[in-house]
Amino acid sequence: MDPITLYGSPISLYTGRARSYLIKAGIDYREEPHSSPHFYDVVLPKAGNRRGIPTIEFPNGDVIRDGVAIIDYFEALSGYTFSPTTPKQQIVSQLLDAIGAEGLLRQCMHYRWNFDEDQGEFLKFHFQTLYPGEQASKERMHFIKTEVNPAWGVTPENHDLIESMHMSMLSVLNAHFGDYPYFLGSKPCLGDFGMIAPLYGHLGRDPKPLSLMQQHAPRLYRWRERMNRPEPDIGEFTDKEEKYLDNDEVPNTLIDVLKQFAIDFVPESQAACDCTNQWIEANPDVPPLTEVERSVGDCTFEVLGRSITANAQPFRFYMLKRMQDTYDALDDTNKNELDTLLSSCNMHEVLDMRLTREIGRHNNLEAWL
Ligand SMILES: N[C@@H](CCC(=O)N[C@@H](CS)C(=O)NCC(=O)O)C(=O)O
């Protein structure tokens, strides 16, 4: 079969997730920017007219927009190769996927946009590929810096908090990947693909955060390398069998990682859930299959005593619903075990953060059902 085309960019957060999946699943692809006349004229109309990366195009012209939908498609086709089947590992994998999708944006944006001296030229080159022309790329970069960053809570008074959270995250992830090659053992799960999104394109590749990762978290850096190689790349570990940990184990090093993520993921998700549900209540006449916007308003929450205001993103709950559905389908014994596990990493409340209107997909877009 001819290769599929992956519209994406090396610097793109979300392309990192789809690319890594395609590599690990052995799917032949060619990557190119989403700036060609073919993309605008032929691909974009089939992608719900939402210009975004990753988007893939099959040799027969079919198109899938959104990294999550791309992975869902290939997982279903392959019989769910990278989806753990035991309850704890399945739920942890789905939770990591949601955190990777939405939970690390402040770190990603701070380390991309607030270190011009280290990486100004680097960003200029990449943005000129995606937005051809000096002026267009300049405008786009200015827009992200001045509009998107503050909208996601990256403001000067929060820089020190973002940096200290980042260093703590590097430390717990480094400890985990010292003991295990992937999040749940010696084979990547969907959670690994979710997490490679922020930890490759931004935090594991831009010069400033890359040097922090290499200096302070070499084992995490190895995972980021491993996730972009077709072989398992686990040579330094004694156990070479490609599988998830036995007995549905979620190791303590991963509990520590989830505890670290919970510090801002839990209060932010609670505030975003409340904000989105208020929006749903205030907008009862939105017709079914209407496109879900990236954000429905601002929410304010507290992290380690600091007040942060950021966009409330419904997509977070589209992702979290997967773990909530898995939990709901368990019997009482398994639910009790999950309750204990999620409480131990301060994530239990996430089970109750649910939207009052469901999100699905229609015409290659997330849509209100
Ligand atoms: N939910 C989407 C998000 C994709 C997304 O926001 N991608 C960014 C780049 S990382 C984008 O396309 N921005 C607009 C553009 O580049 O045209 C996914 O998981 O694929």
Outline the structure in words.
Helices cover 56% and strands 10% of the residues. By secondary structure, the chain is an alpha+beta fold. The chain folds into two domains: 4-78, Glutaredoxin (3-Layer(aba) Sandwich), CATH 3.40.30; 87-114 and 158-368, no CATH class. The strands form three sheets. A four-stranded mixed β-sheet has the order 2-1-3-4, with helices on both faces. The longest helix has 31 residues, at 252-282. It is globular. Glutathione is lined by residues 12-14, 51-54, 66-68, 315.
Cα distance, first to last residue? Answer: 36 Å
| Sequence of strands across the biggest β-sheet | 2-1-3-4
The count of β-strands is 9
Proportion in helices: 55-70%
Note the run of SSEs as H and E: EHEHEEHHHHHHHHHHEEEHHEE
**Oligomeric form of this entry?**
single chain
Ligands (ions, cofactors included): glutathione
In total, the number of domains comes to 2
Radius of gyration, taken over Cα atoms and rounded to an integer in Å: 20 Å
**What is the strand content?**
5-15%
